[in-house]
Amino acid sequence: MRCIHCSFEAELDQSLITCPNCGGLLEIRCDPKIDFAFKSARGRGVWRYSPLIPGKYSRVVSLMEGDTPLIDTSSFGGKFMAKFEGANPTGSFKDRGMSVAVSNALTLGYRAVMAASTGNTAASAAAYAARARMRAFIVLPQGKIAMGKLAQAILYGAYVIEVQGSFDQGLETVMSVHRVEDRIYPLNSFNPWRLEGQKTLAFELVESVGVPDAVIVPVGNAGNIYAIWKGFMELKELGLTDRVPKMIGVQAEGASPIAKAVMKGKDVPEFEEFPETVASAIRIGKPVNWLRAMRAIRESRGTAITVSDHEILQAQREMARKEGVGVEPASAAALAGYMKLLESERLSREDLTVGVFTGNALKDPESMMRVNTNRFTVAPSEVLKLVERELS
Amino acid sequence: MRCIHCSFEAELDQSLITCPNCGGLLEIRCDPKIDFAFKSARGRGVWRYSPLIPGKYSRVVSLMEGDTPLIDTSSFGGKFMAKFEGANPTGSFKDRGMSVAVSNALTLGYRAVMAASTGNTAASAAAYAARARMRAFIVLPQGKIAMGKLAQAILYGAYVIEVQGSFDQGLETVMSVHRVEDRIYPLNSFNPWRLEGQKTLAFELVESVGVPDAVIVPVGNAGNIYAIWKGFMELKELGLTDRVPKMIGVQAEGASPIAKAVMKGKDVPEFEEFPETVASAIRIGKPVNWLRAMRAIRESRGTAITVSDHEILQAQREMARKEGVGVEPASAAALAGYMKLLESERLSREDLTVGVFTGNALKDPESMMRVNTNRFTVAPSEVLKLVERELS
């Protein structure tokens, strides 16, 4: 393990979360001599790749996360595939990492977990904590959570704390609780064990279509783009692949510290105090994993761009109405980004590009109902007339 | 193909939906001499079993439906596994059948489809029609649809017709439109091609755990319990298995024509004019597939029972809070039924029992939010104090 800030190094230690030297973010390094081959992998989902997930676990807390559909598209003018993470057990990619991190917490003997969330982390942490018979403390920015996600945290029995403030303030709160309260295991993405689960998305892509030319990832707290890149890097280090895809981050215009820094060629983003976008899952102004994400983007020769809320909602509708895939607004940013990159010729139509569609449309029913549709109320006897009129 | 009412028989004809002789329901019979072995099956989900799905399709309209998690449980006192159909592309088991039926509609040259729905069929039909570039006319009972499902139909661009009446009236309307309007392909479960997709759930169970002792299925319009039984029967006829599980149907007390008939030993159910239950997906008083379902139950030596709304909501909460699996109320009926059958010793703790959890909790956020949880609103600076109090 190695601190990405002060370069402190340590042997693998499952009890470490942040750097014992400077409090910075730790990176877990995979042994490059692991004996792993796809053709001998067994099982499905995240734990199919257990030789590549460091650590020993007294019990694996799993809901069969991962192994999500990779859906071909034909409507967007290029070779674009949708990795539909909405098919995960709680409806988002968070489940991949939560399975590893909660297994780790259980192994270490914790009986309570905690996470700040824009919603998806809340749902996932609450579900896995329930399965592990642990208590889950969830910190949410009051009034800024999509309805489905809040409802999930409630159903799974989490202890729900709504703070008067932003997600970023919620995350700072969790980090400060973590510094003084060692009975609670923090499940936000500054916890590197979560990223070990999230990286398996890369493994699934390689196993099904090989190494794509580019992977587009919506960026909020910025852990996922790094985790997926890490997965590709590990396969390359193991000699199982010979390259990594360009990693492309997409942020909403109103919450885009990383994309702005990348576009301006800066090394450090300017954080945003009041992030705002319809895509609540990426409404984050101070991404804790900014350094990791910028490294993934730079080293893979990728890029980052911004998309407007209008482009996001349009992409959400197109994905549903042309391809039949229902995604939440933050996920639709991946498609909005793709369209923009095609248009500006930063991606070619021939580049095999995978969009990571991080969460299910059902997470945010209100966003779906904003879309226009034909909708009528009639007596049953009127239906035939209505249909005939429409068909003629 | 064979009519289950008048015994009319015909060669396989993809254009047939109902019996040309009496208008009754048709059964599609699989050739018992098909060359199929699990070990040579390729691909994932429903179409992995394409040799067992009759018909030729000009294009397969698929969102990678099926291949859903089979999740072990440890909280309910017996060997009980959850087949989590909520992981399907639109969040319910309907996607399995919709993929086959919409592929068929496309092959036959239709450009519009229609379905009455309590919600899940609406979402699924709208998504697959969108993917096939067909129009979808959806008939819903006004004000009786879970929010997520209505929102899906809107997002996917369906033509939404809300009727002042029940689901049963909506279905009668679709059947009457079907009789006079041959430009529209009906997608309700009286269409036997849908059931050909739904039966693949049985194949997945056999491939992962063999033939269970019992399979518990929530029963609304009653197509699914028959379709799953049909899948098991076909494997037995092909010599790939040597038995079929007991098929057990669960209905809500307020919408239980089939369960009441089975419990009273009657051959024909008494339909209910005003079905009522919190489990909107099975709020059906006149199940169109009642004869099919009762045959599956009888021939498999299964049974049918009723559960109360209170038992359903309690099972939904237990499934989420003890196992981390989020299901909609209608699905939770499967667990409520299991608990009742264990208690009354109609199932043994040793019987390997699979509950079919038909739809995702996210389909019905309002039902989730009815559950009690600890929920507080505080300033970020108050969080630590709150958590310390709770841990002490």
Strand order of the largest sheet of chain A: 3-4-12-9-10-11
User: Can you summarize the main beta sheet of chain A?
Assistant: 6 strands, mixed
How helical, in percent, are the residues of chain A? 25-40%
Number of strands of chain A: 13
Radius of gyration of chain A: 21 Å
The stretches of 5 or more residues of chain A where confidence is low (pLDDT under 50) are none
The CATH topology annotation of one domain in chain A reads as Rossmann fold
Order of helices and strands of chain A, N to C? Answer: EEEEHEHEHEHEHHEHEHHEHHEHEH
Q: What structural category do the secondary elements of chain A indicate?
A: alpha/beta
In whole angstroms, the N-to-C terminal distance of chain A is 67 Å
Average predicted local confidence, pLDDT of chain A: 96
Oligomer: homodimer
Largest interface: A-B, 86 and 87 residues
CATH architecture of one domain in chain A: 3-Layer(aba) Sandwich
According to CATH, what is the class of one domain in chain A?
Alpha Beta
- Described by the principal axes of the CA atoms, the overall outline of chain A is globular
Tally of contiguous helical segments of chain A: 13
How much β-strand is present in the residues of chain A? 5-15%
